[in-house]
Amino acid sequence: MACVGPVTDSKTVSNGRAAVRVDRHEEVDVFLPGAYLKFYGKSAGDGDWTPLFTFRHDDPIPIPQDCVRFVSADIAYAFVGWYYTVTTDAGRTWSTWKASHDLPNWSCCNYRLIRDVTLSADGSGSMVLNPIPSRRGEVPELATSDFGKHWFVPSNSVGLLPNNALESRAKSVRSDVSLSRAGQSVRLVCALLFHRHAG
After folding, report:
1. pLDDT class of 157 with cuts at 50, 70, 90
2. DSSP secondary structure string for all residues of 57-81
3. Mind listing the pLDDT tens digit for each residue in 103-137?
4. Residues 152-161: contacts with CB within 8 Å, 24+ apart?
5. What is the rounded distance in angstroms from the CA atom of residue 80 to the CA atom of residue 120?
6. pTM (2 decimals)?
7. What residue spans define the domains of the chain?
């Protein structure tokens, strides 16, 4: 069984108020080892690191360059693979997004899923993805209005969705329409019964 091995590299990035540390671990006890990247965050005034997420890659990759970014003194974010994490209070608290949990119909693994993330001080931003053609649940782009705590498919990208994603959206719309029609039918029956009783 594969296990997390010793730390082979570590990188800490800080803006003086928030800090992110990435530890790279070897994968051991496996024929073709990969690597584990463990992300930690903290504020400048806190001595303890908060575990954010652990990302495992099939290949023995190094710590990616430019995977930690700062928008302001209080806003920082990091991303790799299918994980994204953000703080808006200088590292005191963090919110982590992962495609395996938060991207509808997505299933592991696309190790290069997140290509780039841009974030503004007002909370708006975009996540550019590397979708694998015809892969279930993958989309070319996501958008946010709350610093990346939640992501959604922007309206201008709906036409670029793969067929399986479009089918999922179509089923959702049909379901909403069916529920609406069912509600109208119930109201009509109630109205007829009330009219008959009143007469």
Report:
1. low
2. ESS---PPTT-EEESSSS-EEEEET
3. 988 888 899 999 999 999 999 999 999 999 888 88
4. 154/126
5. 19
6. 0.77
7. 3-161, 163-199
